[in-house]
Amino acid sequence: xxxxxxxxxxxxxxxxxxxxxxxxxxxxxxxxxxxxxxxxxxxxxxxxxxxxxxxxxxxxxxxxxxxxxxxxxxxxxxxxxxxxxxxxxxxxxxxxxxxxxxxxxxxxxxxxxxxxxxxxxxxxxxxxxxxxxxxxxxxxxxxx
Length: 144
Fold this sequence. Notes:
The chain is α/β, with parallel strands linked by helices. The protein has helices spanning 67-76, 80-85, 99-107, 133-137, and strands at residues 6-17, 29-32, 35-47, 50-58, 87-93, 111-115, 141-143. The protein has one domain: Nucleotidyltransferase, domain 5.
């Protein structure tokens, strides 16, 4: 039968920055990490060079489900036809990097990879990553 092909799932907290007044969005416009806007947890399916948005949930902040809970809800909506055919690899940044998240991902029979680069992270041969936008967008992957 062989090994199943890998399907990469990306969970990301994305902000749609807003300025001005938006009466229709009411309490959904919040400030989070210094950014004012609509904050979404988005699930992407990665196919080759394509990142396809599959589903999303609105992150409402304090007193509501957090990023981890919203991400797990999104993962549970994946169709069984996908999860049975493929080995699912969930890629996340540290916003989702809690022990509870990884335990529940493993209970779903998925694998998870999390990572982040800071300008103080050691690189190869004792060098440090420069403080550039490119370095901040890069990921140092750690398999759990």
